[in-house]
Amino acid sequence: MVATSIRCDLRCVRGTRLFTVFCGVKMSGRALRTFVLLLLLVGTSFGGHGYETEEFLKREYSLTKPYQGVGSPGFSHWDLMGTAVMTTDFIRLTPDVQSMQGAVWSRIPCYLRDWELRVHFRIHGHGKKNLIGDGLALWYTKERMQSGPVFGNMDLFTGLGVFVDTYPNEEKQHERIFPYVSAMVGNGSVKYDHERDGRPTELGGCTAVLRNLNHDTFLSIRYLRRRLTVTIDVDGKQEWRDCLDVPGVRLPLGYYFGASSVTGDLSDNHDLISLKLYQLTVRDDTQGRDEQDEDVTLPSVDSMEQQRVEIQEEAMSTITLFFTLLFSLVGCFLLAVVGLLLYSRWRESSRKRFY
Known about the structure:
alpha+beta; lectin; 3 helices; 35% strand; Lectin_leg; transmembrane; 20 strands; metal-binding
């Protein structure tokens, strides 16, 4: 009988969804290769709310080195936009130069109901303290390849945005320490408030000291059973730290993943090293399946009444108002003339009939 010794150290950090396994195994070469293959293909973890899940890397939605053909039609699943450039080690969304906008967008809409996006990124530059900006954003939205004021993407977006904001626009910041990570769900009529750093529509957030670090920085966005959780690993300890946890988030299928960045009067290098998307499958799941299968047509959050923005028509300019009044007066004059002519003819016709 072949002796087999197995030594395993299992560490599960509750609430952070970090589940690491270290095993020293003595077994046959064939069994070892099979075991390693299974570890690579399937990862098993426990969600922060009791779900035992299996995760599968979806390469068609992932962006990893060596970024072969990124931005080239027919050779990649990803498009580059604006100032984004590809190198051998990263995709630089914006350089440390003022007034830059860059983005990378998936070409394939995602139809996974439960997923996790793990982002490896780096923000660095020559600026000191608050003389840096503006940050980057991760997206799961109906629209793609649209430039705009929200970290390089359009305002009034439809879907999910997760923001890594490095510059405080609001003058009086009593609660937040920047850089700050937050999330927002938009339904196409909700504006992102730049002057208040997105506070009115924020689902939650946390401080993340992540600039100019010598170690890797990561962010994870998990959408499981209509629950959105964001965790970060920016301390160099290889441990996920909770950032926000919001139940009742409803995101439609068929949206696009993307990442964007912008600089203004202040700047930073915003580098994207990898985006890895995992499909999540809940083991032995029978509860809530009917609700999960319910179609969602518009993004929403059960616990948050979204603020709708009424798009008002622009006020008329002086010239437009002048011509509007002029044409109105001319129209009234013509109607009066026509009315008088008709009345005169009627009077004349009446006299002829009388005599």
